[in-house]
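Each lists chain and fold; for instance:
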Amino acid sequence: MLRRSSFILALCVVAILKTTTTLARTAPEFELPVIGQSTTLKLSDLKGKVVYVDFWASWCPPCVVSIPALEDIRTQFLGQGFEVVAINLDLSEREATHFLKSRPVSYPVLFDINKITPVLYGVEGMPTAFLIDRAGRVRSTHAGFKKSDSEKLMGLIQELLNEGVR
């Protein structure tokens, strides 16, 4: 019984440490090509904005649900210092381009051919998103996506927009 309690306690501590180490840490820098353009985008280009970095793939059902929701959220906060950046993790950029033809978005979609960025961020499944404050710190992470997540996400975004830069 004592071993089982110790094991459960250890799991709880690991979960707490994992959560606290991913929050309020500096978001890893990236520079990736923008799909459909001959430009790249760096996270540091968006310093001073609240940024929602979304890792997704075209074959991921919750990712498909998140795309129109993120478009709506971006529109809601347009001109207020908020940006959505999607990082596609399909096997080829062609798959992502084909997918986006039928579901166009106004926010930048990047392609990580080497799949290094999800490792830097500690992505374990898709979709996984990171809400980054104006100072470039990861303030929230979210795995999965349901339509009902939009309201909570908008509240978090508004809080960070209200904070300004610290």
In short: The two ends are 47 Å apart (CA to CA).
